[in-house]
Design brief:
By secondary structure, this protein is mainly alpha-helical. The protein folds into 2 domains: about 1-115, no CATH class; about 115-238, no CATH class. The protein has 14 helices and no strands. α3 packs across α5 (about 70-80), α5 (about 70-80) runs parallel beside α7 and α9 (about 135-150) runs parallel beside α11 (about 170-185). The longest helix is centred in the middle third of the chain and has 14 residues, at about 135-150. It is globular and about 55 Å long.
Length: about 240
């Protein structure tokens, strides 16, 4: 059992409380139910960087594991993602953490903090792929977003697009992850992404949300936005 004392950290977070931002966060992240202090992200990232640089980041993760405070959950994700440790340990820690993830913000904070070294990409990929192909909603989202962020070029992109093409899930946040990912991967594997829309392999909701995400992207050409719109299904089954 960890002897790490969370009290000083909780006092520090309390001092950074912002009630208006807490209300704003509650509107963006369903299910917080008063579990947020409203610490703004730049400050939270700064705390996470300090924890990552410390020698007891593992103790912090263990001590805070069962706490449901939103800011602690975000710190867990950021610290785990940014932790400097062997890739095998990172995979094991992430595998244990994912079942506790219950919102998109913590999931995406974990992904954006990961930033794997180029030499670790090969070792990490089987785990990421297994997550994307699993049944748990936020584990699936984690896998899809990790692929979108870090595996969008050779030698991985062909496998990534095969996983996206085979995507099937009923979870809202898994489907939104797939739609977001396709809109981003369009820039790296246009023909494969186009084929997913043209062949209509996804459910109506995910299909149409992917088109929406493409049309919202400033990096996609107007011609491609028009092309994507031509595949929109007029009667959704969300």
């Amino acid at each position: 059992m960890s002897t790490y004392d969370l009290s000083p950290l909780l006092d520090r977070l309390e001092g950074l409380r912002d009630e208006k931002y807490a209300a704003f966060s509650a509107g963006l992240v369903p299910g917080l139910d008063g579990r947020a202090l409203g610490v703004r992200m730049p400050a939270l990232r700064g705390v996470a960087r300090e924890l990552v640089r410390s020698e007891d980041w593992r103790d912090f993760l263990e001590a805070s594991r069962s706490d449901t405070l939103y800011e602690l959950r975000m710190l867990q994700a950021m610290v785990l993602g940014g932790a400097r440790c062997p890739v095998g340990e990172k995979i094991a820690l992430t595998d244990a953490f994912l079942p506790t993830v219950d919102n998109w913000a913590v999931c995406d904070a974990l992904c954006s903090s990961f930033k794997p070294k180029k030499g670790d990409l090969d070792a990490l990929f089987p785990f990421v792929r297994a997550c994307a192909e699993s049944e748990a909603e936020f584990r699936v989202r984690f896998g899809l977003v990790m692929m979108m962020d870090y595996y969008r070029e050779p030698p991985f992109i062909e496998q990534v697009m095969a996983v996206y093409r085979a995507f099937r899930h009923e979870g809202y946040y898994a489907r939104m992850g797939a739609a977001w990912g396709l809109a981003t991967l369009w820039l790296f594997a246009r023909e494969d992404a186009l084929a997913i829309l043209r062949d209509g392999v996804w459910d109506d909701f995910t299909h149409n949300r992917a088109i929406q995400k493409l049309r919202e992207s400033w990096r996609v050409s107007d011609a491609d936005k028009a092309l994507a719109l031509s595949f929109k299904r007029r009667k959704g089954k969300s």
